[in-house]
Amino acid sequence: MLAARLVAAGEPLRVEEVPVPEPGPGEALVRVHACGLCGTDLHLAVDGDIPVERTPITLGHEAAGVVVAVGRDGDRDAEGGRVALFPAASCGRCRFCLAGREALCDSAKVYGMARDGALAEYVAVPTRSLLPLPDGVPFDVGAIVTDGVATPFHALRSRGRLQAGESVGIFGCGGLGTHAIALARLIGAAPIVAVDVDARARERALELGADAAIDPGGADVAGAVRAAAGGGLDLALELVGRPETVEGAIRCLGKRGRAVVVGVGPARASLPPLVAFVGREQAVLGSFGADRGDSADLYALIAAGRLDLGGSISARYPLAEADAALRHLARDRGRVVRIVVETGAET
Ligand SMILES: [Zn+2]
Ligand SMILES: [Zn+2]
């Protein structure tokens, strides 16, 4: 089969023939139909600031396809099922897995980082990684939901506890931020204030239903966000991963405001003076990945026609051109919503 393999960060992906993996006991073999690329792939394969466990490794952690075989003693009824993949293979036994927080699994192995991923014609995964994909959800959309949409959904709904009628600021309006705006609308948040350095990203944010879009290059960003929100924010979602953005997001909070940080990076961010932070009962929360339940709820919303992600796929590439897809994302990072690689499986 064809697989797009990372040999060394900064070097082109090598699309090459490798053996079709054998599903072990408790595993399923999935014929991949679509696999999304995301910012994490740039960290792994272009910047090299997140290490992979070994090389070469097949990239790809947001995918959907069809189960074509199960390992020894597996459930043959699963064969033929449309599925998406949870982005990591989890142990199913640690306290985080048992609580449904598999993204925090003590021994999670992220596809394309710690074990071979889905930027290939086939991938073998533990059956725990399979998320049933309803017929009403196409493979490409099913793929990007598992990370690109479920991550901001988890941050807003589960970590930030965003309520209808609350104000929200979205700091960073690339792929995740674009989806965050659509999801905040769906939850009933208002007003929604988008913050991004890129004029095109701000324009797209307004088209998607943000009530205001602020350029963080201005003199008094917190003042501008507060003016647009009619006061301090109830929730600030940070998707950039830089201290100045995190600290800027916290400065925009009102009383009982929560800053939820999804962006990751090596630098340290600091809290406001404690007299202000404590006196206003503010909170800063990290949010990592999503739960299986987040994707399941999103599929239900898409199948019911409540959430339209048809505009989220900025470009499509065949598997043979996986490296060109990655270069496109690197060139246009922050601007494209999602790039999807199609593996040639007939739908
Ligand atoms: Zn990702
Ligand atoms: Zn676990």
Describe the structure.
With 347 residues, the chain is an alpha/beta fold. 29% of the residues lie in helices and 25% in strands. The strands form 4 sheets. Strands 3, 5, 6, 9, 10, 17 and 18 form a 7-stranded mixed beta sheet that branches. Strands 13-12-11-14-15-16 form a 6-stranded parallel beta sheet, sandwiched between helices. A 3-stranded antiparallel beta sheet has the order 2-1-4, with no helix packed on it. α3 (139-159) crosses α4 (175-187) and α3 (139-159) packs across α9. The protein is globular. The structure holds zinc ion (2 copies).
Summarize this, please?
This protein has 347 residues and is an alpha/beta fold. 29% of the residues lie in helices and 25% in strands.
Order of helices and strands: EEEHEEEEHEEEHEHEHEHEHEHEHEHE
Bound molecules: zinc ion
Termini Cα gap: 18 Å
Q: In CATH's first tier, which class of the largest domain applies?
A: Alpha Beta
Radius of gyration: 20 Å
Q: What would you call the structural class? A: alpha/beta
Low-confidence stretches: none
- CATH names the topology of the largest domain as Quinone Oxidoreductase, Chain A, domain 1
How much is the average pLDDT? 95
- In DSSP terms, counting alpha (H) and pi (I) runs of 4 or more, how many helices? 10
What share of the residues does DSSP label as strand, in percent? 25-35%
The appropriate CATH architecture of the largest domain is Alpha-Beta Complex
Overall 3D geometry?
A: globular
What is the CATH superfamily of the largest domain? Medium-chain alcohol dehydrogenases, catalytic domain
